[in-house]
Write a structure and sequence with these properties.
The protein is an alpha+beta fold and 399 residues long. It has eleven helices and 16 strands. The structure holds zinc ion.
Length: 399
């Protein structure tokens, strides 16, 4: 709740955009809490922060856990912050119980998970994992033209460490589900087995600006009507895939966006997701063929630019099993679940054995100021995180 005061919005949410002054304030508070807990804090050049508690055996690789402190423009208190602050609570609890783990452990705050400011989600973990080129990411600009590199320098968030993956024993991320499944089934814990595949596009439909009163149907090249038909297509392609299908147009800009002009240009986003990469590829192929046909039939042009394809990422079987065991031992009702959202864990998983823990959120609502969880839900998730970190950091290691 104290972290949520930084960037608090009138409707009870949070607006703490990545690499903003408010992000800096949130990070400063987190750093102070970490240092108060005796942790050694270091930050890499893209702003990822690692707060370390030493273990008994300095030769062992660290067990990492965390999430992100940045938020959507009208985000909630818990998306990301729960995982970081639960990580801090794990550290404090180990202090309270006077436990020294065998392996060192580190709580992580990844930079710019949300992607809402610079248009690139999972930025910090993506650079760290080598998925994104650091120079390209640093050159990305926000709507005011400020680049990531400039924002890192201006806020002083960027640190001296090289932002590249270092050897680690495991990574665990606690996160709210951001969907309705756990709440609907009254499960306290989601044992996340992996993340679904995604394909994202930028789309531009070009028609022709024309007078709304004088242009008859035969002469219209209405970019918005074409876009509307394509949006419907996205929805149909999604629904044809049942409960596992996802297809969304979430961003749309209309030019010239005035009421008495037939719109000549529309720019919008398109994305498809599915647990199976082959299925999301089939959806994408179907989409591009049909969308082009729609554009042609509407006498407009469609420029479809695929931004990226992210394969489905299964999590590490042993780490997932630790989550399963912890939930069972604590007698928390749980179920296996596929992550519908992208998470830093998905990129970290390319280098480090990884698993995630989900907790329910009210009405499955997230990326929304009304996002809410119950204290006992946070507690259950945090307890599972504590158990898996302890189990991993104290696991006997063969010679
Ligand atoms: Zn998040």
């Amino acid at each position: 709740m104290e972290m949520a005061q930084i960037g608090a919005t009138p409707k009870g949410g949070v607006r703490r955009l990545a690499l903003s002054d408010l992000d800096r304030q949130g990070r400063d508070l987190f750093k102070r809490w970490c240092e108060d807990a005796g942790l050694t804090v270091r930050t890499d050049a893209i702003g990822n922060t690692f707060a370390r508690r030493e273990g008994r055996d300095p030769k062992r690789l660290p067990v990492l856990f965390g999430s992100h402190l940045d938020s959507q423009p009208s985000g909630g208190k818990f998306d990301g912050a729960l995982g970081v602050l639960a990580g801090l609570e794990v550290m404090r609890t180990l202090d309270d119980l006077d436990i020294t783990t065998e392996a060192p452990i580190e709580v992580v705050n990844w930079t710019d998970e949300e992607g809402s400011r610079f248009g690139h989600s999972l930025m910090g973990s993506g650079v760290w994992a080598g998925v994104y080129d650091r120079a390209k990411v640093e050159a990305l600009a926000d709507q005011e033209g400020l680049t990531v590199a400039e924002a890192l320098a201006r806020t002083g968030i960027g640190g001296p460490e090289e932002p590249t993956a270092f050897p680690a024993d495991a990574y665990f991320e606690l996160h709210i589900e951001q969907g309705p499944i756990l709440e609907r089934e009254r499960k306290a814990i989601g044992i996340v087995t992996g993340a679904q595949a995604q394909i994202w596009y930028d789309a531009v439909v070009t028609g022709q600006d024309a007078h709304a009163g004088t242009t008859p149907p035969s002469a219209r090249r209405d970019a918005l009507v074409c876009a509307a038909r394509i949006i419907d297509l996205v929805d149909r392609i999604m629904r044809a895939r049942g409960d596992d299908g996802r297809g969304t147009v979430g961003q749309l800009s209309v030019l010239p966006n005035t009421r008495n002009v037939v719109p000549g240009e529309v720019r919008f986003s398109v994305e498809f997701r599915h647990p199976d990469l082959e299925e999301v590829r089939r959806a994408a192929m179907e989409f591009s063929a049909e969308a082009n046909a729609i554009a042609q039939a509407s006498t407009t042009e469609l420029d479809l630019h695929q931004l990226f394809e992210i394969p489905a990422q299964p999590f590490d079987a042993e780490c997932v099993d630790l989550v399963r065991q912890a939930a069972a031992r604590l007698e928390l009702p749980s179920r296996e679940i596929i992550s519908g959202a992208g998470h830093d864990a998905v990129y970290v998983a390319r280098h480090v054995p990884t698993a995630m823990i989900f907790t329910p959120c009210e009405n499955g609502l997230s990326h929304n100021e009304a996002e809410s969880i119950l204290p006992e839900e946070a507690q259950a998730g945090c307890q599972v995180l504590f158990e898996v970190v302890l189990a991993r950091a104290n696991a006997p290691r063969g010679a």
